[in-house]
Specification:
mainly alpha, two-stranded antiparallel ribbon
């Protein structure tokens, strides 16, 4: 993994690199923790919104499926519910 960033308030950039070991088979996103599903859904939604080539196969319905049950996990924190609402709005606007 590589990270490159600009030091705030300067013109200086830093770059770091780490090896990320592969630890075996990953579970399906449907079985992942609510936090992982929320993060993956938000990321995939942003790729879909920008018509990214990395969003092939992503649909609002697929995203809503990944998000199923997640907003309830976060209770008073309304951001997951807002993401669900935004996906539904985008689906409606896209005519899907």
């Amino acid at each position: 993994m590589r990270v490159r960033y600009k030091v705030p308030g300067t013109a200086e950039y830093h770059e770091h690199e780490w090896a990320v070991p592969y630890a075996g088979n990953a579970i399906n996103l449907e079985q992942a923790s609510p936090a992982m599903r929320l993060g993956a859904t938000a990321s995939a939604f942003s790729e879909w919104l920008s018509s990214s080539p990395y969003a092939g196969g992503i649909t609002p319905d697929l995203l809503l499926g990944y998000l199923n049950g997640v907003p309830e996990t976060y209770g008073a924190d309304s951001r997951a519910k807002k993401l669900e609402w935004m996906i539904r709005q985008a689906k409606s606007l896209a005519g899907k």
